[in-house]
Write a structure and sequence with these properties.
alpha+beta, 18% strand, histone H3K36 methyltransferase activity, 48% helix, double-stranded DNA binding, two-stranded parallel ribbon, globular
């Protein structure tokens, strides 16, 4: 599984989970810290405005108190995504469609080969 943070200018941060690993609120908060640090360096103007806006779905790690506290402390505004919404997230449409086109016709023997190609 891959965690991807992106905006209109492109990918800010991504990371792969090890096989069999699941994302928890604690690991999600660590990813938030890494993403925030990269965003601070790549696009500081986004963080200089009043509350950067974050859109993510309603999975448990995203809604956990530790995650909400982390985002509040970093002054992110959370744009709500309705539960059980039939609308797909922009990531599902925009980013993964382009990624699927990139991977089309590619053959990989293992996850490490995929990671190297990204």
């Amino acid at each position: 599984m891959v965690t991807i943070w992106w905006n209109a200018q492109g990918v800010i941060h991504y990371s792969f989970l090890q096989s069999g690993e699941t994302i928890t609120a604690e690991s999600y908060c660590r990813e938030i810290d890494v993403m925030h640090e990269k965003l601070t360096k790549k696009q500081p103007a986004l963080l200089n405005r009043h509350d950067a806006i974050l859109l993510h779905d309603n999975t448990r790690p995203h809604k956990a108190l530790i995650t909400v506290d982390k985002l509040t402390s970093l002054q992110y505004e959370i744009l709500p995504h309705p539960p059980y919404s039939p609308d797909i997230l922009p990531t599902d449409y925009y980013l993964f469609r382009n990624y699927e086109l990139f991977l089309r016709e590619e053959k990989y023997n293992n996850q490490n080969d995929i990671i190297k190609d990204c």
